[in-house]
Automatic annotation (TrEMBL):
GO terms for biological process: adaptive immune response; B cell activation; positive regulation of activated T cell proliferation; regulation of cytokine production; T cell receptor signaling pathway; T follicular helper cell differentiation. Belongs to the immunoglobulin superfamily. BTN/MOG family. The keyword Nucleotidyltransferase does not apply. This is ICOS ligand. InterPro entries: BTN3A2-like_Ig-C, Ig-like_dom, Ig-like_dom_sf, Ig-like_fold, Ig_sub, Ig_V-set, IgSF_BTN/MOG. The gene is ICOSLG.
Amino acid sequence: WFLSSAGLLLLLLSGLHADSQGEEVRAMVGSDVELSCIYTKEKSLDLNELYVYWQITNASGEPEPVAYHLPGNSSTGHQNNRYKDRAQMSLDSMKQGNFSLRLYNITPQDEQKYDCLVFRKMTERILNVTVTLHVAANYSMPVVSAPTAAPQDEELTFTCTSKDGYPRPNVYWINKTDNSLLDEALQNSTVSLNAQGLYDVVSVLRIRRTPDVNVGCCIENVLLHQNLTVSSQKGSEPIPGTTGSNPDIPGDAEEGRSRTVVAVIALLLTVIVAAAAGWWCRSRCPGRRGYYAGAQAARPEQGFTGEF
């Protein structure tokens, strides 16, 4: 036991790192992920001869263990409490050369480069792989608050908020009339880490008032190739001084056209109903020529005799 522990300590202090680059893996916060480390030169391995280490480099530049296996152990060990019960290697898989590490319940702090090192009898390094883990989380849909300035104010202030995303976002304000980006000098964005290690963002835009102000706030998650954009005029109260009963505003003109269409449809329905009533009366009411035969209708129809 002492020799095994000394061997582990020697590895950590020597600062061994994998020199063979492996794959890059993406995982969502709260999900599980497998970091691949596979030895293919032999089909069967004796675990009593193998030392297996998964480690990361901490902020001080020193190696820090995530999980390990030592000869004679019936399970894998952990020296980092952050990975206890969250990092696992399969002994049965390792016998077949699969030293992959399974991480559970991913957090933003798990975004690291992970080194997989496998030694035979502490003298022969048979495998060294680095796996880079990228962590992501979806941002909430942005919420844009409408300005509360009085109509005479020349400057409008919009505020955009979004939260619980990862990694750090890019924030853009867009002129929705032509989809052009607004000058970054007009905005002030604050991005902060919350208690869960995720990012919250608050962005404030100040622009000069125009008759048809319509801006959009865009939160970009580069890792997820995701852009969430919300317009200032979607689901928000009218901007003071820019809407009202003015018939020149597109919204009011559209409302007037709608009322006209409804009136025309109502008139057409009235004409159709009147015409249908008149037709029904002509076909059902008595005294109309060609529709009532009087007493003759009760006389039996005479057969054709050939006589005149």
